[in-house]
Each structure stands twice: as structure tokens, then as C-alpha cells.
Amino acid sequence: MAKYFDVHPDNPQRRTLGSVAELIRSDGLIAYPTDSCFALGCRIGSRDGVARIRSIRQLDDRHHFTLVCRDFAQLGQLVQIDNDVFRTLKAATPGSYTFILPATREVPRQLQHPKKKTVGVRIPDHTVAQALLDELGEPILSSTLLLPDEDEPLTQGWEIKERLDHVLDAVVDSGDCGTEPTTVIDFSGGAPEIVRHGAGDPGRFE
């Protein structure tokens, strides 16, 4: 049964987020809010967490997981990025974008695209997500909470708990989330390629 954490959207309770961070460190799988929509999240090295996300969303091994980072210091440890791309990303973050880039050795092989050796990274513009990342002290391995055969992500914390109570360890709720996932831009081929149009304005990459 998933624990339910009601978190203030503007002044998240540090003790509550400390409990959530401890669950993540203990290989727990959570649902948490971001600036685009709710996401599933676990520790980067959690094989069980990755397997559970794949099971919930029915994902194959070509799916790009996203490593949600607090800042560029964390992001820079996970992906290879040149100066031009750095400046482009810096201008667009924090925000509702996911960037696909070549992974560094810090990223477990199971999280990388099997052929391209790439991974998704993002820095969210969301008070609760940022506070949780700060409390945890490391990035969160994430995937949009979009269930198979459904067109839109779940937006209500109580509904997520009701429907996924048996497969999650915690639900972090700070009010309604959006229904649009992030805009995904692939930089692995050099020039930016918009892979998915979403909550972030794609205009700056076109």
C-alpha cells in the first residue's frame, strides 16, 4: 500500500520530503509532481524501480528514461555536452523540456538507449520537485505517469493512489498537475531534433 504525502505547493514541508527521500534511497518507487505532469520516480541505481516502471507503463528497452536533476552540476555528470549545447540548454532551463544526450559512464547501461547510448535529462521548474531533489541530493530516475492505452497522464494525487496503490510505495501530492508531458529535444545527432511536442515551447529549437 502506497503512503500518501500531502505537500504544500509553495512551502513544501522539509520533514515530509525527508521521508519521501528516504523511501527513494530504500529502492522505493514514487509518483511525484513536476512542471509538466506527474511522474514515476526511483533511485538511479534501482533495478527493481526500473523494472516496476517498465511494468506499469509496459515499456520496451528502447524507451528513454529521464534523469531529473536539481541543477546543471548534476546534469553535467550524466551527459556529454559541448559548449554550444550547454548555452542552448541553459537558456531553456529550468523548464518543461527533456533533452536527449550521450550518456556518461555515471549512467547505468540499463538506463541508456541500447543502440544510441543516450539518456534523457531535465531540470524541472517546480517548487516541490526541486525541494525533493534538494533533500535527496541526487537525480531521480523518472518516466511520465502515463498508463498504457490512455491518452493523458493522471493529474490527481488521490486517483494515482487509488489506481496504483498496489505497485507504488508513495504518492506525493501538491495539487493538480498538468496533462502535457515535457517537450523532448534530441541533441545526440548534433543539431536539435524535436522528438515530442509538449508543455515546453519548442520554438527556440526549431
TrEMBL record:
InterPro entries: DHBP_synth_RibB-like_a/b_dom (IPR017945), Sua5-like_dom (IPR006070), SUA5_domain (IPR052532). Pfam families: Sua5_yciO_yrdC. GO terms for molecular function: double-stranded RNA binding. Residues 14-200 form the YrdC-like domain. Signal peptide: none annotated. This is Threonylcarbamoyl-AMP synthase. It comes from Streptomyces benahoarensis.
